[in-house]
Amino acid sequence: MEAAIGLASALVDSVLTLLSNELVGAYVASSELGLNSKEIKRDLMFTQGLLHEAQRSGVVDNHGLQGLMQELSAKADEAEDALDELHYFIIQDDLDGTKYAVPDLGDDLQGHARHGRHALSHTIGNCLACFSCSHMHGDDVTNNPHDATNLSSDGPIDRLPFHRVDMSKKIKSVIEEIHSLCVPVSELLKIIPRSSNNTPVVTLKRPLMGSTTVQDTLFGRRNLFEQTIKGIITNSSETLSVIPIVGPGGIGKTTFTQHLYNHERTREHFPIKVWVCVSTDFDVLKVSQEILSCLEGNKTANQSTSLDQLQISITQGLKSKRFLIVLDDIWECNRQGWESLLAPLMKGETKGSMVLVTTRFPSKADIVKTTYPIALKGLEPVEFFTFFESFIFGGQKPEGYDDDLTHIARDIASKLKGSPLAAKTVGRILKKDLSREYWMRVLENNEWQKEKNDDDILPSLRISYDYLPFHLKKCFPYFALFPEDHRFKNLEVIYFLIAIGIIDKDENYMDELVDNGFLVKENDDMEGEYYVLHDLLHELARDISLKECLNIYSRASFRADSIPKSIRHLSITMKNKYDGNFTEEIIKFKRKVDFVNLQTLMIFSGHAGTIDEILKDIFKDIKGLRVLYIEVESAEYVPHNLPNFIHLRYLKITRYNSRSQMTLPSILSRFYHLKYLDLSSWHGSDKLPKDISRLTNLCHLLETKELDSDIPEVGKMKYLKGLRKFCVKKESVGFELSELGELTELGGELKICNLEKVATKEEAMKAKLVSKGDLKKLELLWGTEHDQGESDVLGDSNELSDVIDGLEPHPNLQSLVIKNHGGSTCPSWLCGSIGLLMLTSLCLEDVSWTILPLGHLLHLSSLKLRNIPRLGQIISGSSDITDRSCSRLKEIILFRLPEFTEWVVTPNARWFPRLELVHCYGCPNLRSFPFLEEGSGSYTSLSTLRIFKCPKLLLPPMPATHIDVSAGPSRSMEYDEHDLALTGHSGAASKFTWVQLPKLTSLRELRIEGDSSFISMDLLLNHTSLTSLRLEDCENLEVDGFNPLIAAVNLKEFAVHNRGGDRSRSVAAALLSEMVVASRTDVLLPSAGCFRLGTLGVDSISAMLAAPVCSLFATTLHTVIFKLDQRVDSLTEEEENALQLLTSLQHLYFWFCPALPSLPRGLHRLSSLWSLHVGYCPEVRSLPKEGLPTSLQLLIVEGCTRELCEQAKEFEGRNPYLRVDAYKCID
């Protein structure tokens, strides 16, 4: 019911919005329709108000109302399309200066004459339709069908015809029908009971869970479990710590916490333990009663209703004892309530007490946490499959469980995303019948999605959805349209939801879904910030939206019979070429579903020919499309009726084949309702259609090639919020700065080029930059030095200064770049007292200024000056604000400033307390920086200092904690508080000495490479906190005094290799041998670092492949790298057997082992191995005869014999799940 009301409400809102348009409303009120427009709008607004109230307070289910809602939605949908179509032709009239869609107002003779003329032309047009398809009748304009699929960006396009009589009849009919439904819907909404007076309350039936474990074995997560146990029992610095354990439903939060709670070390450490299942009812009084009841061990303790008395009793009970309290399954809490609950727990006199909180919601974790939350994700594939099998078979596999069933089980497991609850659900299903046919049916039909018990996976996840606020609940189902594992960009989703009418404007919905545990925000160096859908929640979205949304996946089983006719949003994911069965089902699907009102069509990863072959009939029927994602290879793959998509709001055109310069369809300029045009994946021609400025409703043009720099008359696109680049062109009409002045909503980043063509301040002011408050970054670019020499274009220096004064930006600007300005002084708006007070970044390049005052740029954090030949001084500070000048500067880059002599700082300035990075290159006359002067004490945050070609600059001794000095390509040193990397250094060659190394006790990562002066491990004696240590080519290193494998208890990654020197000795071998000896004592192990080590790289295969060594690493080591072993010429049977002890091994490397004759014979028995890398081992000529493990998914062969490379590629052909990369083969 809630969804039906929501859909009807959204559509009625849309209809009213269209009717509120002045010209659309006038047309509906015109004499030719004969409608009582005021009464219709009034009744619609009354219905709208009732629908909004029903959404706010909720109504009980009612089948009659449900049916009326569906009918109202259908008619409102039709009305929206009709009015939207009318609005389209009104826009077309406005662009072309015509009046074809002008309403007939009143009963005057002219109005009757126009209406009669339209009716006559309509009749004649129908009679002649069989003889001609391109006539002009009266005011109707016909379209040239040839231009419908014209892909050229050149030349104008024909108008679409406006059939006035048809339009009037359609609007009159649908408005009357929707009006007639308002009365019964309104009457029912007034009498049906509300579910509450506030927001809808979802009754969630959550199972109560205690501390007793149902599952004796904790599958997977051993490393995380050990780290958590250690963190719990060693945390003695705080009186009370709170650790949230966060993850989606069914991920195993409670099970993980139960094992923590019941572990022997936990029992020994905490004399008092309390477990409370909170669930959806977070009541401070009730939870306090539960805690006290557990403490006193009787039922009467929780009968008190006085919170004050309860808190006094809890304080007394916990006063002198260390305790562990688990609050399981928290769904709701606010900061005030949480602080009240914690108040008595904070009064303890013993440090080290702990509260563990499990929750689905990251936002709740943020409220309660005192340290980093533990985020539980799905189990790793190997661990998950073992867990999965345990639920299918229990203790023992049956004899009939052959390899064939194993492959099916693995395929099913891959769909479950590591979810323990999913493993339980599907395990129960498979257990019923161990036949291949049954398991294949489960795999192909996703049978687990049909399970409806409360403890099944989708019902469990559905509870989280039911708990969402309505504005998020109506957004989430549409995530089902995107492929699994899709990386969502915030704007991509927001634009999509606006385009289909689900939301009205850009809201922070994505981050709200993160807070509610539905999305995870991640960051990538290439893609930047993006979101991913949590595990099986994609399946949940599909389940919720199945009546409206459909995602067809070419590699999955697809059955048209199961698809409802009501589909309005369709996406197709084409990962590979489809087969005949898929084509047959698509044909059935096209017969079954009515595509006339399809609003969304999204094609992901299409192959050449896919769209034209499969979807051509669908495109013929589509009329109401709002969103279109399409991939094209050439002109023939563009839908033939693309011009008729007059309702389109969001268009994404993708083309990955850049071999030919395909142009964008000129028909783009006819999509007058288009708000979002996404060309970010377009790899065709750089040209936009010449009349693209006809898209007057366009808000965002997403592209990567600065295509927007070539839009003539861009000022017509008055709603445009982003324009990356604008080039002034005096020789072309429509490229004057006045075009920018019309873009009042412009924000983001803007680059203005060719400013040498602007002659006066008045002309510059027409850009109206000072009024663009949403603009964050501005680049002002004049021509090159050659252009600056042309006096007829640029004039003198004063004129240049006047021009830049006319380009004053809004005070909110955060980043400014100015290049090639030929004036002698900086503009008053930059250097004056009322200038850019919010500016954080300033970059000046090739300007002619002599002095740069920075006194009033109080928020400046980054300053970059490049190629400024006349600049002599930089002045920071002024008489009125000296104490804050440059106080926020973090980064200074000075490049080729030949006349720069000094940085002047006024007295009493705060110098540079936040400065982190300084690069100075090619400043031959610079003698000193004020922030580096002796005794200034102003560079305590400095972490990077690079000085090149500044012979007069004198530096004081650098602090020992922050330095990054590059002296050439082969010697460098980089250091911050936790990381140190030394390359090619010797103690005498740098100011850093080995005497200082023992003092850097906070180091977490240390890399020393090619340093012959590093001779003793004893220098690392104080570095027990290291997590990563790499020692490469330290040829004189001796093992004495410190063994990281024993003493560095947090070590996760360790590598020690030596390329040359004495072949008979290996530092790695010595360290491993010493570790084995230590393991036999009772003092140093088993709490040694080797039990945390996940990655180990050594230059001695024989030292590593020893049974005592491999036994110690068996459960933790996932990556082994054998590199630069110049000694090994065979593998003994003992070494082969030792390798089998590494049961957690996932990645194995053999690099630069010139004498290694072959790979280990027993590789096929390493059941966890995921990748194998073999590089520059010329004696290895073949893969093991026994084969490779079935778990292997990646094999890389580099710089080896051609025979081995070819065998690897052949092996790939026989194993469809394996990827092989073989290159740089040698003969």
Automatic annotation (TrEMBL):
Signal sequence bounds: none
Pfam short name (any one): NB-ARC
Query: Which UniProt keywords are listed?
Result: Leucine-rich repeat, Plant defense, Repeat
All copies of the NB-ARC domain together span: 237-393
What InterPro entries has UniProt attached to this entry? Apaf_helical, LRR_dom_sf, LRR_R13L1-DRL21, NB-ARC, P-loop_NTPase, WH-like_DNA-bd_sf, WHD_DRP
The Disease resistance protein winged helix domain covers 481-541
Asked if the keyword ATP-binding belongs to this entry, the reply reads: no
Top-level taxon of the source organism: Eukaryota
Please verify whether the record's keywords include Chloroplast: no
GO BP: defense response
Q: Which GO terms fall under molecular function for this chain's record?
A: ADP binding
Q: Which segments constitute the R13L1/DRL21-like LRR repeat region domain?
A: 737-867
Official protein name in the record: Uncharacterized protein
Query: Which organism's genome codes for this protein?
Result: Triticum turgidum subsp. durum (Durum wheat)
Source organism lineage? Eukaryota, Viridiplantae, Streptophyta, Embryophyta, Tracheophyta
